[in-house]
Design brief:
400 residues; 2% strand; 4 strands; single chain; mainly alpha; 15 helices
């Protein structure tokens, strides 16, 4: 067991494989016990995780802000829809969505690497606003495109639920993204991205190509968003411009910030928030009989409130708060353990104190001080007027 643990600690690839296998088995067991509606929610969370994992690497590791990841999802979704209507199989469709979005991400990333701060946010925002309008004009109009749902294999049985099969497909894509980004963030590429994020000048002086690293981060993030969009098309069965509004890009960024930037576990928290919060806001709007306009804009308002509350309570996101709470609990348990050990064994003195005490205490075997050695019996000293020093009274005067 120790050898296996040491092997996993020494190999990031093996750790990521073990993590993917364990998470895959857990998801497989969970889907068997979920209802069709919950399986669809799990599928939604899986493709949201793909997008947020890429966005957390982009914003958390390389320090770039993107408000256009909803548009990257649209690129992947429309690619899957077009190829599905052309008769392609599922896996080649999803692979093509990744490749096409990756190519688009290269060009957007090359432009984004020359921009900073609000200029970068504005450029990606324009991309998010303009691309759905182009899809509305050239790719099926407002009604969009429809695709046939994926058919479960015959080996699973004729009564195998379609929702569970869609959840399996989406979770498989999420596991691929988890494997890739787990290795990227713990490799030399991830360290170079963090170096560029912390100080671009120092990174360039160290020999790193800052623009290339930022373009690479944008490209990987766009590819993950394209896979998430392709999975969205597979799960929903329809692709329309209305599915990728500007609000989607804003909620994606809010979700990754609330979950925790730079953390793949934070992407899980953000995906859960994106899945469950709209349902809760719809229930809230229905219970208060709010108007259509208010209920439509309520989710983004609640996202903003949750974002403000999370930044005030946990500036590093939900995952950062969980780490802080876990660290506090471990420290408290350690302090209680130390206090219990002192209570059972009694107070222990420092190592040097006991030795000093033993050295100062008289030994029972040593002879007692004689009266002649006692300072009280010593003759008084008198001052020598010629030399200005004190001499014992019993000593003969100088010169005698």
């Amino acid at each position: 067991m120790t050898a296996v643990r040491d092997t996993l600690r020494g190999s990031t690839l093996l750790r990521s494989l073990a993590l993917v296998v364990v998470v895959g088995l857990v998801l497989l067991l969970i889907t068997d016990s979920l209802s069709p509606y919950r399986n669809l929610q799990l599928a939604d969370g899986a493709y949201y995780f793909c997008v947020l994992a890429g966005l957390t690497v982009l914003a958390g590791s390389s320090g770039q802000i993107s408000l256009g990841h909803g548009a990257f999802m649209a690129v992947g979704a429309y690619t899957v829809a077009k190829l599905s209507n052309a008769g392609w199989a599922l896996i080649p469709e999803l692979a093509a969505s990744v490749v096409v979005t990756l190519i688009v991400g290269i060009f957007v990333g090359m432009a984004a690497s020359r921009l900073r701060g609000p200029y970068l946010a504005g450029a990606t925002l324009a991309f998010a606003v303009g691309l759905p309008a182009l899809a509305d004009k050239f790719l099926g109009g407002e009604n969009g495109l429809t695709i046939n749902p994926p058919t479960p294999p015959a080996s699973l049985g004729a009564s195998f639920p379609l929702e569970r099969w869609q959840a399996w497909i989406a979770c498989a894509g999420a596991l691929v993204v988890l494997f890739v980004f787990y290795n990227v963030t713990r490799s030399a590429i991830g360290r170079s991205l963090r170096a560029v994020r912390d100080d671009e000048i120092a990174a360039s002086l160290a020999g790193l190509r800052v623009g290339r690293r930022q373009t690479l981060a944008f490209t990987l993030s766009a590819a993950a968003a394209g896979l998430g969009g392709g999975l969205l098309a597979v799960v929903s069965g329809t692709v329309a411009p209305g599915a990728f509004p500007l609000q989607l890009s804003l909620t994606l960024l809010a979700g990754v910030v609330i979950g925790g930037l730079g953390s793949l576990v934070g992407a899980v928290w953000g995906a859960a928030l994106l899945v469950f919060l709209p349902n809760w806001t719809n229930d809230l709007a229905s219970s208060f009989s709010l108007s259509t306009n208010v209920s439509h804009n309520l989710p983004i308002a609640i996202y903003g409130l949750v974002l403000i509350a999370a930044m005030l309570a946990w500036p590093s996101g939900i995952q950062g708060g969980v780490r802080a709470v876990a660290g506090a609990v471990r420290s408290s348990v350690a302090r209680r353990g130390d206090a219990g050990a002192r209570g059972v064994g009694g107070p222990t003195a420092p190592a040097g104190t006991a030795n000093a005490t033993e050295a100062a205490a008289p030994s029972p075997d040593s002879p007692a001080d004689s009266p002649a050695d006692s300072p009280a019996d010593s003759p008084p000293a008198e001052r020598d007027p010629d030399r200005g020093a004190t001499t014992p009274a019993s000593a003969p005067p100088p010169g005698s």
